[in-house]
Structures
1.
Amino acid sequence: MTGFLKGSATAMITPFTKDGVNFDAFGKMLDYQLENGTDALVILGTTGEPATMTEEEKIAVMKFSLSHVRGRAKVIFGTGSNSTQKAVEASVRAEELGADGVLAVTPYYNKCTQKGLIAYYEEICSAVHVPVIAYNVPGRTGVNILPETMARIAEIPNMAGIKEASGNMAQVMETARLLRGKCDLYSGEDALNLPILAAGGSAVISVVSNLAPKLVKRMTDAVLKGDLSEGNRLSDLLLPLAAACFSEVNPIPVKAGMNFLGFEAGVPRPPLTPLEEGHEGLLRTAMKNCCPEVRG
């Protein structure tokens, strides 16, 4: 299927306190996105740290998100797992709660074959009616969706597209070629947002837009309208921020950045650690050109 997602989507962080999810802070973060024109909110993806959350916490986050957003933007929940059964169960739960769609990362650690990837997405898609987005991030999972494999997966009726974060533009271009008219291509790597959009991508799923939602939205819209001059100008502002946001493992830097903006983002859950002091200056400097007043 095509046309599910267009524009700017934010891969949301999850703010924590020592006692659990900070829902007051999370509500303010959702409002920040909505006020700045973000088209979709991707919640409980990698950036949201679901691997360190309990099932009860994840369900509570889903319910809170849908209640707070109230249809003002699309809400997409991360449901992928290294267990097909768990991914199916999470996807069904997300649909039952009212999600607009689900994002299913490739099975991690198990390192299945390309045939196994096709079977994984077939089972998830057959269990739900909402659009499903495949998420290719081999640097995290150890599994790479090859272009020919994604072309097969794209034939599944409710497969909406692929969030591409392989970092390999040659592969992305081949995937784009094989998917045209079947399902959509989304950028999952902030440093490559502009070229992926220019290659035919219909949306970005951005970490940086936690911090600079308005700029990411403007850049995305410019490229989608064919204004590459404006797109490049805005991308040039955003690229140093993207580099700073990945100076350590995501979401370590972006959570620190949200704290710099005055949001109570807390710190990542172990085994992730707070941003190292040596990277704070890099992040603050990059934020000055892209974000509202940086505090502290």
2.
Amino acid sequence: MAQPGLFAYAPHNTPLQRLDPRVKLPALIALQAVAFTLSVPALVLMAATTTAGYRSARLHLRDTLRRMLPLATLLAVIIAVSGGANTLYALRIAVAVLIANLFTAVTPTTEIAAVIVTVLRPLVPRAAAHTALAAALAVRFIEVLFAEAAEAKAAVVARGCPGVGRRAAAVAGSVLQRLPQRSDEITAALTARGYDGTPFTPALRPLRTPDFAAVAALAAFVGLLLVL
């Protein structure tokens, strides 16, 4: 089965995909917040739990790690420049990215938008739907950028471009050149689907027993991480 790219949604029918987005989004925020304050044993436990989450969602962690190679290279440079002083910080970033990728893999864009609308509507009723649409499109545009970069890299390698620096420059130039075209395509797609400036977000279903159980498990897990 083909695996999604980094920050892409994977339409599998697993417990994580079925979990209510009003549970998954707070879980993402909570785990991202504590990832940079945990002790080493707690960070290891978080990484192991994230790995189990990938298996539960039927995602191949090895493929995700391969797609994270550019980030890994950057983190390696940071570690080298700091003489190893930033090793733990780099590991925190890597774990945080893995958690964010797992969230986007199990949460459709429409559900992300629906949660944002639910939160913002009491505060800014007129702007809630537009803000949610912008946020959801931003999340998915990251996926487009990664796909464009992978395609450009394959093309550069196929043409035999010498030197790491020249390859990186060629990939960056190709991605930047395609961005206006991709923006036009997104606009055309929205127009073709009847978008008239009023974003549509689906109604969220009532919370179910597994959702409440997940909230309790998340609270217990975050508490355990903080005491380790």
3.
Amino acid sequence: MVELPNPLFTALEEVRRERIRGAAWSALRVLEGLLDSLNANKKLCGINEKVYGMIIDANPSMSSLYWVAMVFKKGCELGDPENYLRKLLFEISEARRKIPDVSLVIFERGTKVLTLSYSSNVELVLRNAFRRGVLGQVIALESRPGGEGINLAQNLKKFGVNIRVVPDSTMHIYLKKVDIIMVGADSITRDGCLVHKVGTELLAREALKEKRPLFVVFEPFKINIGFNCSGFPMITRKYEIEGWGEETYPLFDMTSPELISRGITSEGIFIWEPGKLKDVAESFMRRIFD
């Protein structure tokens, strides 16, 4: 068993236990742990292969952790992991800063939005649209098991957003009452499948029936060019069902690319297709290592 410096060990344990905050928070938390650990232990690169695996194992369904692990490992090989990790941190921050304004072009005054789960990017986009006076009502699906949609609604309500929380089973009813669907991403495969909170695939299929566009908001480090749709590692979590007991559920599901209308990232809005996703990921990589 590899003994990790305490800051990194603590960060990985927090990521393993987390039930609400997603891929961006997980990456930032591990980055923080890595940078603190490198300051305390200059020999961490000596076990970079093992550290790489342990970062990914904290949540194999989150591509953000693959990027953190990859940048750490490659940074060690180039002799300056801290420099490249800080460049990754900067690029993540820049993406999150730009996405809300990039997204504004899809809004008209009073645009009604339906969303599922909790995405910090979706929250930032909706807060910005509300501040600019173009956001209408927001419908947040509860997002069971876990109820992450409730957390999103609570956060947005504090800013004055007109938001309702409705049961997941009513999505087909409320899709008729909104203009667009917007979700975040935990991972995106190289062939364009979206890995997101379970229920997303059903929502995407229902949205297609109702001819409502589905927008996916994400930072480039959510793209994992190492996996395709059929080979992506999915995980399960245990949840307590009131009046019943504990059950194990899939945490994510896989939404096929043909069900997704557009991607929104810091580099713009684009038709969802594998070639464009590859370009976005490669551009992000160049900014870190060039």
